Amino acid sequence: MPINVSKELPASDALKQENIFVMDEDRAQTQDIRPLNILILNLMPEKERTELQLLRLLGNTPLQVNICFLQTATHQPTHTSAYHLDNFYTTFNDIKTQRFDGLIITGAPVEQLAFEDVTYWNELTTIMDWAENNVTSVLHICWGAQASLYYHYGISKYDLPEKYVGIYKHYVQDTRVKLMHGFDDIFHAPHSRFTGVSKQAVEAHTNLTLLAASEDGAPFIIISDDAQNIMVTGHLEYDATTLREEYERDRAKGAATPLPENYFPNDNINEQPPHMWRSHSHLLFANWLNYYVYQETPYEWHQKT
Hints:
The chain is an alpha/beta fold. Helix content is 31%, strand content 25%.
């Protein structure tokens, strides 16, 4: 089944070219079914790229999904046109009286700041508080995952000696949890971050379960006991070329960024990186939508307690 987005959204054409089933608003209104309503708080600078990455994954499930894009009101994005934001995004004040089946909070390039120093931190915590009673399940990605761990569970991030960037092996810690259904025991996923969280702190928290960790023990997928919050510290949504583009961008700025580990074949930047995490990206989003959103959300929201 399709995702329902505005037919004017630039990502719509790209998704159709990839044979992702996209339904425009006019056709969706003729179907007598109750679609899932998913809110995406997009904190990434290049919003159109992130839209495409997430919509590609949300559109590859047997569920019809309505998408609403959310931007911060307390921070003005500089890498996305005002036209795009005005036409395809809304702010919290406009949707705070609504309820959503799922919420995705993306990463953001602010992880080297203290949480409280981020210009939109208060707005973000307001949204996270609101989600507790107005959203069935929240999927937090990268910095969004760290923000959730800090705000909801008191687990702080810490600085890494250098940027942790590349494709890493991860090991499933608990196959009984539905979010991990279908996952291989060992799978690959991209990371691109300057900070980490303690595995010991996650495992010691009585309301959290560690579902997957990398070879060096870094937490990757974490779920709260009530499944209200799912934290993914990496970027399964990334395209095969995303780390290359980040590396070239950083080098062009003169940053001493390390070569992404286990990414370029033979560590040769002229060779095409293989997409080794595509299937698990789709699996994670499909499992989240099915088990933690569709199966749990009420048909009528006043039924939720």
